[in-house]
Amino acid sequence: MPPRRINDSYMDVDSDSDISILGDEEQSSRVKAKGKGKAVDKSKRDKAKSKAKEQPYAWEASYTRSWDTVQEDEAGSLQGAVEDLIARGRRKRLLAPANAIRRTIIRHLILLMDLSSAMMDRDMRPTRFDLMLQYAREFITEWFDQNPLGQIGVVGMRGGLGERIGEMSGNPQDVLKSISERHKLEPNGEPSLQNAIEMARSSMSHLPTHSSREILVLFGSLTTCDPGNIHDTLEECARDKIRISLVALAAEMKICRELCDKTGGQFGVALNEGHFKDLLFDLIPPPAQRGVARAGGGGISNPAADLMMMGFPTRLPVTSPPSLCVCHSEMKSEGFICPRCSAKVCDVPTDCDICGLMIVSSPHLARSYHHLFPVKAYVAVMSLDDTLNPSLSCHGCALPFKDATAPASGPAADGTSPFGRYRCPECKNDFCADCDVFVHDVVHCCPGCGK
């Protein structure tokens, strides 16, 4: 029904039908063309969908669909497949070459923590800030366990400034105490890489040449508020042989990549919570010592070894009379006596506050050597045909192995043994997968041959 005209210029607003101002022939042709266009668009969309199914996105190539490879066993259980995936993940990092590399066992590390407002994002649960604090505490504990002769300091980045949170210390309890109170580290403002790196560099300027100087940055922002040219700071860090490593929580930035590449550090962008922890814990082993170019241009030469003076203290029992310690000025019974000046300190390893002697215990020194002489990687046993009288139980924990008569279904991959056996190349003893990981990560000494 055509609309009712009120006058020549206005029409009734009650009508909701379209107004035709074209002729019947033009209108019919427009409708046909419109329908044809819909059909063409629909066919294009169908082709695009089918093409997308055949050719996935580029970012999907980095993810493995583990649920497609999991298969049930004869009893219909998935426990065996899950254990196999866990074993492959454990063995992947044990397959690295175990050659003796010249490393610096006395390390000095400054931990730069991003405390800007970007750390309150919830793309990592519960927030980037809370996850960073949790992993930082675990990192510090594990770092001191594997590097007992090292020291760690903590610096924060917020409000466009660098804030000193914890002084450099060789006592893990002091470092953990500095980041234990969450309300004092509440994120705000913008970070400043240049100010924080300059503060870390100035705190390591007095360190001796035989120790390593490292900066680890946990960065979650996409901006940096710097007062000057950060490239000048980068050149000074490279000249002072300071190694900068960075773990980004948001995305890769060009300046962050340059900081790591030009100083010989490691750079990585965390994809998720588990990947963030892996990138962080990969920085726990001491880095390889870099060679120095010769003056005549004849290649690379190793730097000359410097002798270090250390002291092994005398430990005081609990029953000893209380006395003042030089580190906290508190009355305590337990402690350690410096062999040079007879001052009393609370914990070792540390530097004596009176004479400056490095005080260490023999277990700490022995524990630092396993990075220089690592345990050789165990060889996965793929067949028992060439083995006379194979052992029925693990040499480490005495638990029985899998069925030794027939291998497990499916080919072994990623260096895993179908029998669950891993053999030491020196003593030829067989170990289970758990003992293999325990020996290389905790004991650092083969229980069969003692090497």
Description:
The protein has 451 residues and is of the alpha/beta class. It folds into 3 domains: 106-287, Rossmann fold; 310-371, no CATH class; 374-451, Herpes Virus-1. The protein is 29% helix and 16% strand. The chain contains 11 helices and 19 strands. The chain has helices at residues 24-54, 66-69, 79-92, 128-146, 172-178, 193-203, 230-239, 254-263, 273-281, 362-368, 433-443; strands at 107-114, 151-158, 161-169, 212-219, 242-248, 267-269, 292-293, 300-301, 310-311, 314-316, 323-324, 331-332, 335-337, 344-345, 350-351, 358-359, 379-380, 422-423, 430-431. The strands form 6 sheets. It has a 6-stranded mixed beta sheet with strand order 3-2-1-4-5-6, with helices on both faces. Strand 1 (107-114), helix 4 (128-146) and strand 2 (151-158) form a beta-alpha-beta unit. Helix 4 (128-146) packs parallel to helix 9 and helix 7 runs parallel beside helix 8 (254-263). The longest helix is centred in the N-terminal third of the chain and has 31 residues, at 24-54. The chain is globular, with a radius of gyration of 32 Å. The relative contact order is 0.09.
Question: How are the elements arranged and paired?
Answer:
Layout: H1 24-54, H2 66-69, H3 79-92, E1 107-114, H4 128-146, E2 151-158, E3 161-169, H5 172-178, H6 193-203, E4 212-219, H7 230-239, E5 242-248, H8 254-263, E6 267-269, H9 273-281, E7 292-293, E8 300-301, E9 310-311, E10 314-316, E11 323-324, E12 331-332, E13 335-337, E14 344-345, E15 350-351, E16 358-359, H10 362-368, E17 379-380, E18 422-423, E19 430-431, H11 433-443
Parallel strand pairs: 1-2, 1-4, 4-5, 5-6, 9-16
Antiparallel strand pairs: 2-3, 7-8, 10-13, 11-12, 13-14, 15-16, 17-18, 18-19
